[in-house]
């Protein structure tokens, strides 16, 4: 079998099964594990999959720039934002992450709601600047341009003084075994620190982020108490999350 044919088959099996393992692939193709690992490295370099110990998982497609992602209209994303906004109670202290799904959340916060929003996203802060009853606390640091959020030691130090009721987390991957993940190491640190400062973490996940993984792990899926997904999400993608004890809300 040609290398190109083998890679095509690997991707087909990955799409079918949700993961592939190097050792069984080597047996099935009659090649060495080193050959399979080389195939997986090359496919990962192309962005076709995410390598993990012993094999590979589907790669998250949520890798475009913030400006490009913001121009992509999504009824599912709007529904998730609306459902998340409805979770905020008057008087609460709420942490809102960066990213385009969290931007949809902010658009649906009622003008009458009085609460405090803590954010490390300049975009989120500006979106709330004209909200009459929301107090906005902005966490500073180095700007991670993909998600337009601040990261780094200064940001993590600022978070240590916060006790929040809710944290709305944006991710690029939600996988039952690989956990919650994102595409930047420092951003993963910041998200984990924010989750530690909140009584409840709510992950906002459009369908393409489910059963997918990115390079940097934020934590196990159980770091989140709730995951908000699109109403049309396949039950097979939700069942492993619920089995892990995570509440799933269909928006």
From TrEMBL:
<feature type="domain" description="HTH deoR-type">
    <location>
        <begin position="3"/>
        <end position="58"/>
    </location>
</feature>
<keyword id="KW-0678">Repressor</keyword>
<dbReference type="InterPro" id="IPR036390">
    <property type="entry name" value="WH_DNA-bd_sf"/>
</dbReference>
<dbReference type="Pfam" id="PF00455">
    <property type="entry name" value="DeoRC"/>
</dbReference>
<dbReference type="GO" id="GO:0003700">
    <property type="term" value="F:DNA-binding transcription factor activity"/>
</dbReference>
<keyword id="KW-0804">Transcription</keyword>
<keyword id="KW-0805">Transcription regulation</keyword>
<dbReference type="InterPro" id="IPR037171">
    <property type="entry name" value="NagB/RpiA_transferase-like"/>
</dbReference>
<dbReference type="InterPro" id="IPR036388">
    <property type="entry name" value="WH-like_DNA-bd_sf"/>
</dbReference>
<dbReference type="GO" id="GO:0003677">
    <property type="term" value="F:DNA binding"/>
</dbReference>
<dbReference type="Pfam" id="PF08220">
    <property type="entry name" value="HTH_DeoR"/>
</dbReference>
<protein>
    <submittedName>
        <fullName>HTH-type transcriptional repressor GlcR</fullName>
    </submittedName>
</protein>
<keyword id="KW-0238">DNA-binding</keyword>
<dbReference type="InterPro" id="IPR018356">
    <property type="entry name" value="Tscrpt_reg_HTH_DeoR_CS"/>
</dbReference>
<dbReference type="InterPro" id="IPR014036">
    <property type="entry name" value="DeoR-like_C"/>
</dbReference>
<dbReference type="InterPro" id="IPR050313">
    <property type="entry name" value="Carb_Metab_HTH_regulators"/>
</dbReference>
<dbReference type="InterPro" id="IPR001034">
    <property type="entry name" value="DeoR_HTH"/>
</dbReference>
């Amino acid at each position: 079998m040609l290398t190109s044919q083998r890679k095509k088959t690997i991707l087909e099996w990955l799409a079918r099964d949700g993961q592939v393992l190097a050792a069984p692939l080597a047996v099935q193709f009659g090649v060495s594990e080193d050959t399979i690992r080389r195939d997986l490295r090359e496919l990962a370099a192309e962005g076709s999959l995410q390598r993990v110990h012993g094999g590979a998982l589907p790669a998250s497609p949520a890798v475009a720039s913030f400006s490009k992602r913001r121009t992509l209209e999504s009824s599912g994303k709007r529904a998730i934002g609306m459902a998340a906004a409805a979770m905020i109670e008057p008087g609460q202290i709420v942490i809102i992450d960066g990213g385009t799904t969290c931007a949809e959340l902010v658009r649906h916060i009622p003008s009458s709601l009085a609460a405090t929003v803590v954010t490390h996203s300049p975009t989120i802060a500006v979106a709330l600047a004209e909200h009459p009853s929301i107090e906005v606390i902005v966490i500073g640091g180095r700007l991670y341009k993909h998600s337009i959020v601040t990261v780094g030691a200064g940001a993590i130090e600022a978070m240590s003084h916060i006790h929040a009721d809710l944290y709305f987390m944006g991710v690029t991957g939600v996988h039952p075994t690989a956990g919650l993940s994102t595409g930047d190491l420092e951003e993963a640190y910041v998200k984990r620190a924010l989750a530690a400062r909140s009584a409840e973490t709510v992950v906002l996940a459009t369908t393409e982020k489910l059963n997918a993984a990115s390079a940097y792990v934020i934590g196990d899926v159980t770091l989140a108490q709730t995951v908000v997904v699109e109403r049309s999400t396949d039950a097979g993608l939700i069942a492993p999350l619920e089995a892990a004890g995570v509440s799933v809300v269909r928006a």
